[in-house]
Amino acid sequence: MSDTQTCFYCTDEYKGYMKEICKLEVSTVYLNNEQEYLGRCTVVLNDHKTELFQLEEELRGKYMRDVARVAAALKQEFAADKMNYAVYGDIDSHLHFHVVPKHKHSKNWGWPFELTAGEGNEKFLTNEEYQSIIERIVQHLR
Ligand SMILES: [Zn+2]
After folding, report:
1. Strand (E) positions, 24-115?
2. How far apart are CA 37 and CA 103, in angstroms?
3. Ligand 1 centroid, distance to 26 Cα (angstroms)
4. How distant, in Å, are the alpha carbons of 2, 39, 69, 83, 100 from that of 61?
5. Does 3-138 carry CATH code 3.30.428.10?
6. Residue 62 to residue 43: CA distance in whole angstroms
7. What keywords appear on the UniProt entry (predicted)?
8. What is the number of alpha carbons within 13 Å of residue 142 lying toward its C-beta?
9. Which of 70, 78, 81, 140 could make an SS bond with 101 (beta carbons 3.0 to 4.6 A apart)?
10. How far away, in angstroms, is 95 Cα from ligand 1 center?
11. Three-class DSSP category at 93
């Protein structure tokens, strides 16, 4: 099987973990179902690439612009004190940025946010709450 046939993002597997917010120039923005950090999003490159250095300069520039747009939207909408970004990909190697609003005096301030809240500590919302957050974010991205 090719990499894309087993890829978390190229297949529908991701749909159990996040909801699409919108498409940007070269990426798609998703709201993570787990919302311990309110507004947490993932910005996924539309092409299946696994390393930033594999992208031609123009595509990398567009992707960084998309990530920056999302970060600016989240910072404004959720009054974040600082935006955090994470790119790992050991397991799901398709390029994606975790973009996470952080607040002083809140969990993990001064430390990396945790990718998973841990069993029983996850914060899941109702469909209406997810839709409300998606609308709050997308108004900054139009
Ligand atoms: Zn992929």
Report:
1. 27-32, 41-45, 82-86, 96-102
2. 9
3. 14
4. 27, 24, 12, 19, 21
5. yes
6. 12
7. Methyltransferase, Transferase
8. 6
9. 78
10. 8
11. coil
What would the pLDDT profile of 84-140 be if each residue is shown by its tens digit?
A: 999 999 999 999 999 999 999 998 999 999 888 888 889 999 999 999 999 999 999
- The amino acid at residue 38 is L
Which of 13, 12, 74, 16 lies closest to 43 in space, CA to CA? 74
For residue 4, pLDDT over 90 is answered with no
With CA atoms as reference, report the closest residue to 38 among 85, 77, 86, 96: 77
Place of tokens 């709201």: 31
Where do we find the tokens 């798609």? Answer: 28
Contact 89, 95 (CB under 8 A): yes
Look up residue 136 and give its amino acid: R
**How far apart (Å, rounded) are the C-alpha atoms in residues 141 and 133?**
13
Residue 49 C-alpha to ligand 1 middle, in angstroms? Answer: 7
Residues less than 5 Å from ion ligand 1, measured at CB: 7, 9-10, 48, 94
How far is ligand 1, taken at its centre, from the CA of residue 48, in Å? Answer: 4
pLDDT digits (tens, 9 = 90+) for 10-37: 998 999 999 999 999 999 999 999 999 9
